[in-house]
Amino acid sequence: MYTLDQTHRKLVLVCTNNRQDGRACCAEQGAVDLHRKLKNAVAARDPRIRVSQSGCLDHCNTGVTVVIMPDNIWLGRVMDHDIPELVNLITS
């Protein structure tokens, strides 16, 4: 194991978990499409911020979950109309 160079100033995780057992999950609430839109919007503003899909963040009952690191900001019920405000928060 070795330490990698830091190439990103922030990491944003978008839960795209898809549960197969009938319980609520972010994927069924539009998370995959939201991830793509958010990733494109953030990259256009600051390519040093990485927006990645994540597995379950254990908040699927609150809608699509987004985590901004290293700020340790957890957001639930994120929707497409939140993207402009979210981009401003992430890139500040």
Question: What features would you describe in this structure?
Answer:
With 92 residues, this protein is of the alpha+beta class. It has a single domain, classed as Glutaredoxin, CATH 3.40.30. It is 26% helix and 21% strand. A four-stranded mixed beta sheet has the order 2-1-3-4, covered by helices on one side. Helix 1 packs across helix 2 (83-91). It is globular. The mean pLDDT is 94.
Short summary:
The protein is α+β, with helices and mostly antiparallel strands and 92 residues long. The protein is built from two helices and four strands. The protein has helices at 31-45, 83-91; strands at residues 10-15, 49-54, 66-69, 73-75.
Q: Using only CA atoms, what is the Rg? A: 13 Å
Separation of termini?
Answer: 33 Å
Indicate the CATH topology: Glutaredoxin
- Determine the CATH superfamily: Glutaredoxin
Please tell me the total number of domains: 1
Mean pLDDT: 94
SSE order, one letter for each helix or strand? EHEEEH
- Percent helix, as a range, is 25-40%
Organism: Candidatus Uhrbacteria bacterium CG10_big_fil_rev_8_21_14_0_10_48_16
Protein name: Ferredoxin
